[in-house]
Amino acid sequence: MIDDMSTENVAEATWRQMLERHSAARRGGSPEAIEAAAAEPRLRQLFPFLSHGCLTFHRNTEYPWSNDLPFIACTTPYKVYATGYAELLGETEIPQEAAALVVAHLPND
């Protein structure tokens, strides 16, 4: 999936491919949620991963994923959950609000 490692790291290349709607990088999810999350500098530093209609964020770029950060379920309304669906952190019709909610619940580190 990553085609040019000389100028981008894995997370940057994955974000780029998701935003460009590259077929290998977009397995479900909402283009609007991806764009909103990509606009958030703290989320842009993380590795994005789409699975089962959810946009998740990880500290690492290879399996096993960190799975310790909140994520967006790309449904209508968008739902933001704590790790492992432990808690519904909020719902919104606006993808930018969903991305901001994830950022608000990220750990400081």
Description:
The relative contact order is 0.16. The chain is built from four helices and five strands. Strand 4 and strand 5 form a beta hairpin. It has a five-stranded antiparallel beta sheet. The N and C termini lie far apart (28 Å). By secondary structure, the chain is an alpha+beta fold. The chain has one domain (10-104). It has helices at 10-19, 31-38, 41-44, 95-104; strands at 47-51, 54-58, 71-73, 78-81, 88-92. The longest helix has 10 residues, at 10-19. Helix content is 29%, strand content 20%. The model is unreliable at 1-5 (pLDDT under 50). Helix 2 (31-38) crosses helix 4.
Q: What keyword list fits this structure?
A:
5-stranded antiparallel beta sheet, alpha+beta, 109 residues, 20% strand, single chain, disordered N terminus, 4 helices, 5 strands
List the helices and strands and how they pair.
Elements: H1 10-19, H2 31-38, H3 41-44, E1 47-51, E2 54-58, E3 71-73, E4 78-81, E5 88-92, H4 95-104
Antiparallel strand pairs: 1-2, 2-3, 3-4, 4-5
Helix pairs in contact: 2-4
How do you describe this structure in short?
With about 110 residues, the protein is of the alpha+beta class. Helix content is about 30%, strand content about 20%.
Kindly report how far apart the N and C termini lie.
28 Å
- Secondary structure class reads alpha+beta
Roughly how many Å is the radius of gyration?
13 Å
- Mean pLDDT across every amino acid position: 88
Portion of residues in beta strands equals 15-25%
Largest sheet: 5 strands, antiparallel
Work out the count of structural domains. Answer: 1
Give the overall silhouette. globular
Instruction: Give the low-pLDDT segments.
Output: 1-5
Indicate the percent of residues in helices: 25-40%
Strand order of the largest sheet: 1-2-3-4-5
The count of DSSP E runs of length 2 or more, i.e. the number of strands, is 5
* Helix and strand pattern: HHHEEEEEH
Supply the number of helical segments: 4
Protein name: DUF6193 family natural product biosynthesis protein
Organism: Streptomyces caniferus
Pfam families: DUF6193
